[in-house]
Predict the structure.
Amino acid sequence: MTDSISTSPLDSAADTAELRSQLRSGSEKTQLQLLQQQIADSGWDVLMEFLLERKSEAPTAVMGKAYQILYSANSPRAREFLQANFPTGLVPLRSDSNIDYTPLQQLLALQEFQEADRLTLDKLCELAGDTALQRKWLYFTQVESLPVADLQTINTLWKVHSEGKFGFSVQREIWLSSGKNWDKLWPLIGWKKGNNWTRYPQEFIWDLSAPRGHLPLSNQLRGVQPFAALMAHPAWVK
């Protein structure tokens, strides 16, 4: 199968067989392209089968897309399947601070990126404590002490539910590839154009047409120091 995939709905037996085949052995790019098409209910069984086969694996962008299709489907059968097999969502919601990330997972599964971005900042402030919650932003010293498990959970939620485009680790990868040069990073992720900073919220792009690494908006943490602390956090050291 080539990279130029038809945009017509996947609703025939042949389409369903191709979907099953590609989800088992296709490249991630081809799998995501296939899942971007309209998938009829005949394909939902294939997506359920695919998710069950990989239930014990670390969630991927392809799994996230399959989950999102079922989560957004107006189907009692799809809802029952997800509730039975992924009751808290696709991503394990680990937290060292007893924080519930279920609402964030739900927003991201629905591709409600602007609301998810606001909630991400709220959760980071909640992790940092009452003073950060009242201020609604974090000092860089507070960023440094954020729990590893929680940052990894937030990051994985963003990556898995954005086809791999968004997340702190994605931003870090771009930052490292730019030689840790902030002036190069900002335009690459769409936070600055020429000499002008992107205005919040109207000039940011709240869907998957945004540049890679565009979200979440960690610049809401105020200035370079907190963002630098986030990029240097031990959560990203493998």
